Amino acid sequence: MKVFSSSYTFDYSWEEVSTANWRKYCPWNDKSTHVIAVDTLSREVDPTTGILRTERLITCNQSCPAWVLSLFGGSSTSHVYETSYVSPAEKRVVMCSTNLSWANILSVRETVVYQPDPDASSPGHERTKFMQDAKITALCGGWQKIRTKIEEASIERFQENARRGREGFEAVLEMSRRVFGEEREREKARLNMA
């Protein structure tokens, strides 16, 4: 098993980050073009806790090392199952995902958390901490060298996708701030005219 961990502080409030999170794979993000579809399977709010629970199916199209395809077959299209929990009371988003494609060969379990970063924030300038952990385990029998190679290739791909994903999400956050700011200004002008 290989473990990948990263953290980052976004220069945006938790409210901005948790809202823009739903637009992470939109046309504003030119760094995640490998994501070709995001389908919401279910969404519900727990009436007791107020936590929003969402299940999504994410479809990706990305190349796989040729030697892996030659050994195991398969396709460059893959599916990821994601469950997210948004707690407005705790100001916390937790997203858990696992691969559905290639699941008999590779297990990828990822957890992402967004929450306010009080250490990096100041009054009027809130920031949000992003923490990501992934456990990657090759499941292909007793071939230790092949398992190790698959895990290493997967970690490399995961690191690259994480870097590009963070860059793309920054673009989404920037565009969201601008668009919502323009909308607030239009609404303010409309109310002043009334």
What does this structure look like?
With 194 residues, this protein is α+β, with helices and mostly antiparallel strands. The protein is 33% helix and 37% strand. It is built from 3 helices and 7 strands. It has helices spanning 14-20, 66-72, 144-193, and strands spanning 2-10, 35-45, 52-61, 77-87, 92-99, 106-116, 128-138. The chain has a 7-stranded antiparallel β-sheet with strand order 1-7-6-5-4-3-2. Strand 2 (35-45) and strand 3 form a beta hairpin. It is elongated. The relative contact order is 0.20. The mean pLDDT is 89.
Shape type:
elongated
Question: What is the residue-averaged pLDDT?
Answer: 89
Structural class: alpha+beta
Extended strand count? 7
Low-pLDDT runs of 5+ residues are none
**Most strands sheet:** 7 strands, antiparallel
Write the layout of secondary structure elements.
Elements (H helix, E strand, L loop, with lengths): L1 E9 L3 H7 L14 E11 L6 E10 L4 H7 L4 E11 L4 E8 L6 E11 L11 E11 L5 H50 L1
Antiparallel strand pairs: 1-7, 2-3, 3-4, 4-5, 5-6, 6-7
List keywords for this structure.
single chain, 194 residues, 7-stranded antiparallel beta sheet, 33% helix
